[in-house]
């Protein structure tokens, strides 16, 4: 034995201690001096051993408390047995709690000796003996007064022995977790023995304790709640089917279970063990604590959710009646895998996966320190593995291991997880579990938080063997593992799908076609075979394009799965990729700009309308890169671009053919360019809408602006053409009056452009010639916009003109004046409320506006006869215009509380009061309601109800068009996928929530309509 340090070496001791890793060298020097005076100071080899621990200061404190109490035997062992010295100092340098335990029970150091051959038997026998029970008895019963204390002392002695092997690397993480689970099972058995001593008549029942979670999976932490489920039966029922009274037996079993839980969680002078948590039982905390086998079966066969079967993956009998526990396992195993074939399985798996993703994206600041629930934490690995087990374990029984690392290895062996991904996940999982163990060992407390103090981080780093810069090295290593877990988690489901079809070289096992189909189906793909064909087409070959797609697709397949229609998303992506595949910027943009790829996946998987637009102009994908790029462009900027295109095609290039030769093609080409501009801008607005970047009003204004620019450009092109054909200037001024939703600046994606054409012959022009020229321009405008083209049609509808279809297509300003003065009906005045002369000759537009203002906003308002006529017309419209066979309450336009209801309220108020309230003189519905509130004509509460109902109905109509690519006013009820897609686009958790919310808004709005419009009490 080397000599202990002496006073003549004291000047150099502080420096030596600092070099050994002591943080508080002066304090350690003082403690050593005091110990030397008492004759209990450590020698040089022991001092060096302390310097090799995770926290030398902590280890020294523990050792100096232990040495005087343990006596010469310990000092001799530490000098002669390197293994004993290493184990003891390693424990003391990590765990203050076990240091305290050794101070209270100094003889327990012997479990750390080399070749310890003491009285430790199996964990079960050891802990049962500690509570005075006979381990060989069929149902051991505790004896003695201090059973709770004895259980805790024996438990911690075994924990001390395990920690000694763990901290010097003699047991790996998986072995430690398995031994901890077995030790917990033994403690439950001992707790049950204590409970039997407390519960008279316990012989009346059999009780089995089923371990769940980490205990069931044999992957427990040092300090963790132990999840259990209880199953019981009356004595004799197992063999004969009959037995003692079942209700009485269940009452006894419940008392036993409760007493067992208290035996483990109760506080004593030796502390407590851990909480026993039975919340995973059927019905959770609301259900009975104990059930019979038949009751468990009935619940799981009828009521259980997919997540409950996920929890049952780890079920294992751990204590109590072994035969009953085995029967429980035999009963539950086939039910778990049969349930995985149920109708709701795919939806449940998707919901669970989305819930995890949502959790990952909504972590608190504290979660950054979370080993379990933080981004890239243990839960990410465990949940992904369990989900893959549920998906593929139905057909492959080799995947049913309850232990995460074993299951991960099996998934890799079967090709369900890429080998490199499995290796990285396993490495990260082992690291994170090791850190979790170290964090919990320090105080023997249940925690999953990495310390945020320098000392705690230093202790962790040194315990992991990081000595150069323990804090920096540990933090970097932890973050690297977390990033790797997160990266792999994002595409764990998808990379093997590529390997299944890409025919890449290598010996690694791959998903079979059937396994790939099952996985795609579980992720929400309705046509897995078609999806695999698309994946193969995108990734086949050795080109750079295929290589980039193989990098992109694992992530994008997950984004498609998050969208309402994954199949449509993948098909659209293939079509866009085929169209732009040779364009160098396209794949580079998707690879380098994550936002573009993610937004593209959502748009393609959500909206047939936007997908069709993108397929006709694939280069518009570049718009997805930023929010700024998706802001609707100002109308003036669009107008300048459109009219410039018309001018270019009218003038033609230098050296081109004479104007006569360009007459037929110039106008069509010009409008073709304008329609391409419209297509691009519609895509911009649709994507901004799908991403929630614009509200209802902004969408209506943007779509109206796009339509007005298109009509104005077509008008100019038509005028140019007619002038070329007539070889002279147009003999009249022309204007286009926007009507209906067009005039109200409330166009939807599927709205027609309701218009009226007005002209005013130039001074001296022949009125007949002017009329014919104006008619030719109007017809040409309609023809140009109706030509077949790869963009959604813009139907120009002139049927709101005087006399409707029977009247002339174009009228002069004077003709309009004569008609409105003599023949106008109240409904026509109402239609003019939304008239906005905004296209064509500016002076003519203003003259037309001056003409119609007195008609739509008559002096002194409309009389009671006109009010009654409007009300009758509205009532007749409600009964006659609704399509037959539709559910009235679900019709967003004509149904009760729908768009028409709200708009007619606003329009009646305008007809009656706009002559005296200037702010009511607007074509916009919501502005009219706001003005009515300011004028005291409508309460703020009623206006809010009407506005919310109008906005909701408008949003639904827009979402229907975006999802289906076809206009509809009816909420879908019979097409489940379509209905679900509309709900998702509108950000509702389910279709039921959408229907309920719409009906509530419509019901409240209709009540206001009945009162304000119809005058009901």
Would you tell me the structural class of the helices and strands? mainly alpha
Question: Which percent range describes the beta-strand content?
Answer: 5-15%
Q: What's the β-strand tally? A: 10
Shape: elongated
Query: N- to C-terminal separation?
Result: 104 Å
**Residues in helix, %:** 55-70%
pLDDT < 50 runs, ≥5 residues: 1-10, 653-658
| Number of H- or I-type helical stretches | 44
Radius of gyration: 40 Å
Summed over residues and divided by their number, the pLDDT gives a mean of 89
Largest sheet: 5 strands, mixed
Structural write-up:
The protein has 1017 residues and is mostly helical. It is 62% helix and 5% strand. The protein contains 44 helices and ten strands. The strands form two sheets. Strands 1, 2, 3, 4 and 5 form a five-stranded mixed β-sheet that branches. Strands 6, 7, 8, 9 and 10 form a five-stranded mixed β-sheet that branches. Helix 25 (528-539) runs parallel beside helix 27 (566-580) and helix 37 (826-832) packs across helix 38. The protein is elongated and about 130 Å long. The chain starts with 9 loop residues before the first helix and ends in a 5-residue tail after the last helix.
In short, what is this structure?
It is built from 44 helices and 10 strands.
Q: What would the keywords be for this entry?
A:
1017 residues; mainly alpha; five-stranded mixed β-sheet; disordered N terminus
């Amino acid at each position: 034995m080397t000599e202990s340090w002496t006073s003549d070496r004291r000047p150099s001791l502080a420096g030596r201690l600092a070099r050994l890793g002591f943080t508080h060298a002066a304090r350690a020097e003082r403690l050593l001096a005091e110990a030397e005076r008492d004759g209990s100071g450590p020698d040089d080899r022991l001092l060096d051993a302390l310097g090799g621990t995770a926290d030398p200061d902590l280890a020294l404190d523990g050792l100096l408390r232990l040495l005087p109490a343990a006596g010469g035997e310990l000092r001799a062992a530490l000098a002669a047995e390197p293994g004993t010295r290493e184990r003891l100092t390693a424990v003391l340098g990590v765990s203050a709690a076990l240091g305290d335990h050794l101070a209270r029970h100094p003889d327990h150091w012997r479990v750390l000796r080399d070749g310890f051959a003491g009285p430790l038997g199996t964990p079960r026998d050891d802990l049962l003996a500690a509570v005075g029970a006979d381990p060989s008895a069929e149902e051991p019963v505790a004896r003695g007064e201090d059973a709770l204390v004895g259980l805790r002392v024996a438990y911690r002695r075994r924990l001390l022995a395990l920690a000694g092997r763990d901290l010097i690397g003699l047991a790996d993480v998986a072995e430690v977790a398995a031994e901890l689970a077995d030790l917990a099972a033994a403690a439950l058995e001992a707790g049950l023995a204590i409970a039997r001593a407390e519960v008279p008549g316990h012989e009346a029942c059999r009780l089995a304790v089923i371990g769940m979670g980490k205990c069931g999976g044999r992957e427990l932490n040092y300090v963790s709640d132990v999840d259990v489920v209880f199953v019981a039966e009356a004595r004799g029922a197992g063999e004969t089917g009959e037995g003692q009274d079942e209700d009485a037996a269940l009452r006894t079993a419940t008392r036993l279970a409760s007493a067992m839980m208290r035996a483990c969680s109760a506080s004593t002078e030796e502390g407590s063990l851990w909480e026993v948590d039975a919340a995973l039982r059927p019905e959770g905390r609301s259900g009975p604590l104990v059930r019979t086998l038949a009751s468990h079966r009935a619940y799981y066969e009828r009521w259980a959710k997919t997540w409950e079967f996920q929890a049952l993956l780890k079920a294992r009998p751990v204590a109590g009646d072994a035969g009953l526990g085995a029967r429980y396992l035999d009963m539950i195993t086939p039910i778990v895998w049969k349930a995985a074939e149920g109708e709701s399985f795919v939806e449940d798996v998707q919901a669970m996966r989305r819930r995890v993703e949502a959790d990952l994206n909504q972590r608190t600041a504290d979660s950054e320190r979370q080993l379990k629930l933080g981004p890239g934490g243990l839960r990410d690995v465990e949940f992904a593995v369990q989900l893959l087990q549920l998906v593929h374990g139905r057909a492959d029984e080799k995947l049913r291991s309850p232990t995460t690392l074993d299951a991960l290895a099996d998934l890799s062996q079967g090709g369900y997880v890429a080998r490199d991904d499995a290796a990285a996940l396993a490495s990260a999982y082992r690291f994170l579990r090791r850190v979790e163990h170290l964090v919990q060992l320090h105080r023997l407390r249940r925690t999953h938080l990495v310390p945020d103090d320098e000392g705690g981080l230093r202790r962790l780093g040194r315990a992991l063997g990081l000595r150069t810069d323990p804090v920096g090295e540990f933090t970097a290593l932890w973050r690297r593992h977390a990033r790797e877990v997160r990266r792999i988690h994002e595409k764990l489901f998808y990379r093997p799908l590529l390997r299944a079809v890409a025919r890449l070289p290598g010996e690694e096992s791959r998903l079979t076609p059937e396994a790939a189909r099952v996985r795609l189906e579980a992720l929400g793909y309705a046509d897995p075979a078609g999806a695999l064909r698309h994946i193969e087409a995108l990734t086949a070959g050795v080109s750079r394009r295929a290589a980039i797609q193989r990098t992109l697709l694992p992530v994008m397949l997950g984004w498609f799965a998050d969208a309402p229609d994954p199949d449509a998303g993948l098909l659209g992506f293939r079509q866009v990729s085929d169209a732009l595949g040779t364009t160098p910027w396209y794949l580079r943009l998707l690879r380098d700009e994550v936002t573009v790829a993610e937004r593209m996946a959502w748009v393609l998987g959500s909206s047939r309308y936007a997908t069709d637009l993108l397929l006709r102009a694939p280069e518009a994908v570049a718009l997805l890169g930023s929010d700024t790029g998706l802001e609707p462009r100002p109308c003036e900027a669009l107008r300048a671009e459109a009219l410039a295109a018309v001018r270019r095609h009218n003038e033609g290039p230098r050296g081109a053919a004479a104007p006569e030769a360009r007459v037929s093609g110039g106008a069509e080409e010009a409008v073709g360019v304008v329609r391409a501009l419209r297509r691009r801008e519609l895509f911009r607005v649709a994507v901004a809408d799908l991403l929630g970047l614009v509200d209802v009003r902004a969408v209506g204004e943007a779509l109206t602006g796009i339509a007005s620019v298109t009509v104005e450009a077509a008008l100019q092109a038509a005028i140019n053409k007619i002038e070329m054909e007539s070889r002279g200037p147009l003999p009249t001024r022309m204007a286009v009056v926007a009507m209906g939703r067009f005039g109200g600046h409330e166009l939807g994606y599927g709205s027609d452009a309701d218009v009226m054409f007005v002209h005013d012959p130039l001074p001296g022009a022949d009125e007949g010639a002017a009329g014919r020229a104006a008619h030719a321009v109007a017809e040409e405008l309609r023809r140009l916009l109706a030509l077949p083209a790869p963009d959604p049609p813009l139907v120009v509808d002139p049927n709101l003109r005087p006399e409707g279809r029977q009247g002339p297509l174009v009228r002069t300003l004077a003709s309009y004046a004569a008609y409105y003065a003599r023949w106008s009906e109240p409904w026509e005045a109402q239609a003019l409320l939304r008239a906005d002369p905004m296209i064509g000759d500016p002076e003519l537009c203003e003259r037309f506006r001056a003409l119609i203002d007195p008609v739509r906003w008559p002096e002194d308002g409309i009389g009671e006869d006109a009010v009654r006529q409007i009300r009758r017309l509205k009532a007749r419209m409600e009964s006659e215009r609704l399509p037959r066979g539709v559910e009235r309450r679900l019709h967003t336009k004509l149904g009760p509380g729908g768009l028409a209801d709200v708009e007619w309220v606003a329009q009646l108020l305008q007809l009656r009061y706009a002559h005296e309230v200037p702010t009511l003189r607007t074509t916009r519905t919501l502005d009219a309601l706001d003005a009515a509130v300011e004028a005291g004509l409508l309460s703020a509460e009623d206006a809010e109800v009407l506005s919310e109902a109008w906005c909701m109905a408008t949003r639904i109509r827009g979402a229907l068009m975006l999802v289906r690519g076809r206009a509809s006013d009816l909420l879908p009820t019979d097409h489940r996928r379509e209905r679900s897609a509309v709900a998702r686009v509108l950000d509702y958790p389910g279709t039921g929530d959408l229907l309920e919310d719409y009906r509530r808004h419509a019901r409240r709005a209709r009540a206001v309509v009945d009162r304000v419009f119809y005058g009901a009490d």
